[in-house]
Amino acid sequence: MNRPVFRRTLALLLSILLLAGGFTLGRFAATYATGADVDALPAETIPVSEPGTGPSPAVETEPAAPTEPVETAIPEELPWYLMLVNRDNPLPEDFTVPPLTQLQGGHYVDSRIYQALQDMLDAARAEGLQPLICSSYRTEDTQVALYQQEVEKYYARGYGSGEAEALAAMWVAIPGTSEHQTGLAVDIVDINYQVLDEGQEDTPVQQWLMEHCAEYGFILRYPTKKSDITGINYEPWHYRYVGVEDAVKITESGLCLEEYLGQRI
Q1: 237 vs 187: CA distance, rounded Å
Q2: Of 38, 138, 173, 184, which is the most exposed, with the fewest CB atoms less than 10 Å away?
Q3: Rounded alpha-carbon distances, angstroms, from residue 71 to 88, 189, 249
Q4: Catalytic residue among 150, 165, 179, 235
Q5: CA geometry: angle at 138 spanning 133 and 143, to 5°?
Q6: Rounded to the nearest 5 degrees, what angle is found at the Cα of 72, between the Cα atoms of 71 and 76?
Q7: Backbone torsions φ then ψ of 103, nearest 5 degrees
Q8: Of the candidates 125, 133, 140, 128, which has an alpha carbon nearest to the alpha carbon of residue 101?
Q9: Could you read off the pLDDT of 112-138 as tens digits, one per residue?
């Protein structure tokens, strides 16, 4: 092969390798940005800087058809730990983020639930389990970004705007209607299974939490077969603080929070 031809061939090969490397690097950056690698373990309180956020739910299951909300009458005056936030009850315009306590890994929760959360996870660890917090308090801006990211997934699958937004809202709450914005909710996974799908319910961590979370004031917020009421698909990883007394009653009754609060009138 003469030298000019060899040089052109070499240049072409180098261009192809650079393009391939850029694509791989881009995919890595995108995966990192969406929080696919979760490494936040709850720990002692440390100085609070800017609130951190967890990764977006990595749900890859088939989309469930959005349902019409079932209206439930809710008492207007509730203690702070029974605040209801859902698609029918958005955060009030004057809502003020409560004092937050930071957890290892940049996660934050309402300071009033920190000790209960710490005690619950310490008890799980004492049983040889490895619970992992992958999402906690979120700012409004973060919730907007996560919701839009979920909407874009459905656009990419060919859904129109209205349907894409409705389907996305079944996995990521519309900004202003997410419990994560209250600081009262956390997503917890098993360190050996860091996937947000229904398989999470079969992990040792979730089996233990579902049995014992009420003892520490937490409930599994979005139980199976309650999506028509909660507006959110089954999430066997999303725990919400409601206080020990109410958590025990809710868990024993088999009701979701909306149903339980409706009975308090």
Answers
A1: 5
A2: 38
A3: 8, 31, 21
A4: 235
A5: 120
A6: 125
A7: -110, 160
A8: 133
A9: 999 999 999 999 999 999 999 999 999
Percent of the chain having pLDDT more than 90?
A: 68
Q: Tell me what the mean pLDDT of segment 83-107 comes to.
A: 94
DSSP string, 200-248: GGGSHHHHHHHHHGGGGTEEESS-TT-HHHHSS---TTEEEE--HHHHH
Q: List, for residues 27-57, the tens digit of each pLDDT value.
A: 333 332 333 333 333 333 333 333 333 333 3
Q: Tokens at residue 78, please? A: 């509730």
3-state helix vs strand vs coil in the chain, percent to 5 = 45, 10, 45
- In order, the DSSP letters of 71-84 are -----S---GGG--
The predicted pLDDT at position 42 comes to 35
Give catalytic status of residue 235 as yes or no: yes
Residue 193 tokens read as: 């299974």
